[in-house]
Amino acid sequence: MKYEKSVNNVHDSILYIPGVSSLLTLAWIKDVDLRVKKLDETFFNSLSGVKKGLNELYPKLGFKGKVKAEETRKNNFNNKDYGIYFSAGADSTCLYLKIRKYKPELFTILGAVTPLNNHKMIKKIRQSVKTFAEKEKIKINFIETNIREVLNEGLLTSEYAKLFPNPDKTWWDAINHGIVQLGLSAPLTPANIGKMVFATNGNSPHGGNYKIITRIAWSDLEILPEGKYYHRYEKIKEFYKKYVDEKNFYPILKVCNYSPIVSDRFNCCSCEKCAFTITSLLLAGVDPRKSGFPINYGFFKYVKDTIFPNAHSQTTWINIQENIEKNYAESIDYSRSFLETLKNQKFAPLRDDIRPSEFGLNTKWTIFSIFYRLPKAVQLKLLKMFYNSIYLRVYSRAHS
């Protein structure tokens, strides 16, 4: 990991937290000991609760390994300032706007979704976050990490995802992203941060689930998970829309899990996550083209023909549907025909008992296992070929 601020004066018991949090779940799932010379006492004591939370969420996995510290140290800093994990996504942006009166410092992890070698995208993310921070007159902490590559997370996903309740999630999504991102920030907190806010979603098994986040602790820092009771549209209407109206400024939202990996686009505007975020903005009366989503009229036909029949985020779409009638007058005028279609769309309910066949899962993860054993340069080249040959064609369909 790489910090832009000096951490030379931070005690070793805190400095070891990022490394331990990054390797923790690997040690536990492989049932081996992770040994460290020094560790913050509160963090060390919290790990049994974190492991318990993971085992409650993923009972088929069995996290068993142990962290062993030669020495623990009690740290108390009595800090009062707020910090917030800020990815520039809809969740973290709306959460910042919810607590902006506290002027929280931004903690932005680079390398978590967008690989550090995607230099154009990393540069755009830095500039976008800096622009927002300057507008808000707040401080930023950029933290670089390559932990997803060091762990060869693809192999972990191919080995264990079939045991997740949702086998489509990656190791990062399902297990690591809350633990690792929180741990990475630890060396920057002793100076002034007393409360750290982390955006989380619902009760489904997820790396940012309350059963994990609320059990992580170090020194006398208070970690505050937020966002459990809001759907995407509700967050955008309650916080983002009000901010746009008040400031006449549109923070760029980076919600896509695909295009930032191998392109320099914040959002593909073609995946379901982009689609329901764009729709939420439209219904709230915010032009998505000003928020990082360069759509045109082709988007509406594409979503109706492609996204609706194959929707996986039914709860999110249904929440938008339920709000169309009472908020229709506020919506962007060029989207109203589309919203009328959405209002009458029938989404098949999700069933927990329907999973891909064992043969299908095994085939999928065998292919992934082979792919993630290839050299990194070959993996990247293949990903770019896939993106250019398939994904960009989908993008063009949504924008023609």
Binned, the helix content reads 40-55%
How many strands in all? Answer: 8
Number of helices: 17
Major sheet = 6 strands, mixed
First-residue to last-residue Cα separation: 41 Å
- As for the number of domains, it is 2
With strands numbered from the N-terminus, the spatial order across the biggest sheet is: 1-6-5-4-7-8
By helix and strand content, what is the structural category? alpha/beta
H/E element string?
EHHEHEEHEHEHHHEHEHHHHHHHH
> Over all CA atoms, what is the radius of gyration?
21 Å
Q: Which residues sit in consecutive blocks of at least 5 with pLDDT less than 50? A: none
Determine the mean pLDDT.
90
User: Roughly what fraction of the amino acids lie in strands?
Assistant: 5-15%
Q: Please tell me what the overall shape is.
A: globular
Task: Give structural notes.
- The protein is an alpha/beta fold and 400 residues long.
- The protein folds into 2 domains: 2-226, no CATH class; 250-400, no CATH class.
- It has helices spanning 12-15, 17-29, 41-57, 90-99, 119-136, 147-150, 153-160, 171-185, 210-213, 232-247, 259-262, 272-284, 298-307, 314-327, 336-343, 358-371, 376-398, and strands at 2-3, 33-40, 66-73, 81-85, 105-110, 140-144, 193-199, 222-226.
- The strands form 2 sheets. It has a 6-stranded mixed β-sheet with strand order 1-6-5-4-7-8, with helices on both faces. It has a two-stranded parallel sheet with strand order 2-3.
- The relative contact order is 0.12.
- The mean pLDDT is 90.
Short summary of the structure?
The chain has 400 residues and is of the alpha/beta class.
